[in-house]
Amino acid sequence: MIKKLFILFSIFGTTVCASEYSFVSGEYSYIADFNQPCSAPSCVNYSSGMRVTGSFVTNSPLSPNLSNQDISGLLSSWTFSDGVHRISSSDQQSVIFSFTVDTDGGGNLTIASIYVQQWQQTPQSGAFFNLIEIIGNSPGAFNAVECTHVAGSICGGWRHPNSTSSASTRTPGFWIQSTGPLSIASPAYNNLGVIPNPFTFSFGGQCNGNNWSPPLEFANIPAGTQGLAIVMEDLTFPWLHWLAYNVPANTTTLPYNASATALFPQAQNDFTTQGYGGPCPPAGQHIYAVTVYAVNTSFNAQPTIGQIQAAAIQQASLLGTRSDSDNVPWNPPSPPGPNPIPTLSEWAKILMMLMMIGTVGWYSRKLTR
Question: In terms of pTM, does the model score above 0.70?
């Protein structure tokens, strides 16, 4: 019986892997500076262009249909940033005040209520700390909050004196799930970087890109993968930009404008064109996710995103931003050219080397005579 249980665990246990849930918000739309005099050890202000980002890792995916569930005991690591502070589980001055989530029937994280604190001083009443909160996916950041009630190393009550600065955004943030070591990157832009001009749509003067799909790189594709699926969505306003499927499982790179080839099937995007349709936000900054799914099947017909997610062994996402005012050029890498012609100094070195080789050869023959 024990042997049978071990075999079952060996078969099914390998499918359970760590899951990372990443959060990104829009840029701050409300900022309140601190007022002098500053009575805290560190008084700083937030600025436009900053946002709340972060992630947490669990040893296995979250269960479906959770409702306001405390998952602090399931976390193997966590980290959040507000543009000024990095509050993380690896920092001895950082603690969790609250960490609850909701999930849907597929185990996807839908809503989170998270408070993480970072002490500026020894934890006690009257001491100052920094706070990042995510309430119903709406983030807030606070520097130099004064604790009014402390329980161990956790502040249970606080107030905002003159030393406190804060920032928030009216736009809810987004959660992206990654499972296992599968990864995705692009040589054209970094995670949360601005998507360059050539990869935007061309639409009536609103955006004048080349509509190239971005170059992508994949790593750590898991065993059992039968194919890859790639989905690009606008997280700020629901819009499908790209859905490609049955990409060969051994694919580790896609060159720019791969969507224009016939290497794999592609669905119609929300521009009603086949294949890739790049970002083209009408106003303000939008956040886009390019997600690669390693799936355990080959699709005989065009799949929905739900069907892709159901067949996924692992998934990973690359985030990018774009606003109507962005202007970021990108030039394709030049193909390797012919070998350059040696310079005069290089010819001299080559001639000297040949003369030395000839001299050594002549001397060796002379000795053997």
Answer: yes
